[in-house]
Design brief:
Layout (H helix, E strand, L loop, with lengths): L6 H12 L5 H14 L7 H15 L3 E5 L5 H7 L7 E5 L3 H13 L7 E3 L3 H4 L3 H5 L6 E4 L6 H10 L8 E4 L2 H5 L1 H8 L4 E9 L7 E9 L1
Parallel strand pairs: 1-2, 1-4, 2-3, 4-5
Antiparallel strand pairs: 5-7, 6-7
GO molecular function: catechol O-methyltransferase activity
Protein name: catechol O-methyltransferase
Organism: Rotaria magnacalcarata
Length: about 220
Amino acid sequence: MNNVVDWRVVLKDYVLKNARQNDIQNVIDTIDKFCWTEHELMNIGDRKGKILDQAIQAKQPKTVLELGTFLGYSSLRILSQLPDNALFVTLEANSQSAEIARSIHTYAGAADRIKIVNDLSENVIPHLSEQFHIDTLDFIFFDHVKNIYLRDLKMLEDAGLIKSGTVLLADNVIFPGAPDYLEYIRNNPNYTTTFHEAKLEYREDIRDGIEISIRK
């Protein structure tokens, strides 16, 4: 008998039962409450989420790419800071996570403004420009598999989607860590970059951080 709990499903059910429908901020708060009191999940979380919020507010992007939708938490945080006419694309390789994210986005009243692509990033990035009729990305959020941050950054550069002023925000650069990404971005004269110290989402005992970089 399989007694393994799928906490993604438990979270979805908790949100649909406890959050206010069509209230993005309340859905965000409900997910945070679940992750602090019931079971921690790998969202960016409420503390590092404020750094993400501020970066979006400062840039006011019109084209946004998120790598790693997971269950849709950070998508809602990003969307809540975007103008109505912004294009927001988020990639998720895991089909069940993408399905749950769609359910949560729909419940929050945000599904029509978030384009979830359920595929591997290496399959999607080369076709982003053509698929979504864009020639640049204003803001890119890296929060998927840490050891492919650098590969995907280089793919985005090669695709010509990173231009002067593009903001890159990478989560979990200390834990689990993305050392090759940090080495590349910090030693690349094409970028200015800043590290923001933080604790791991929903934990007090593990050091983590966010790297925010801007293409010159």
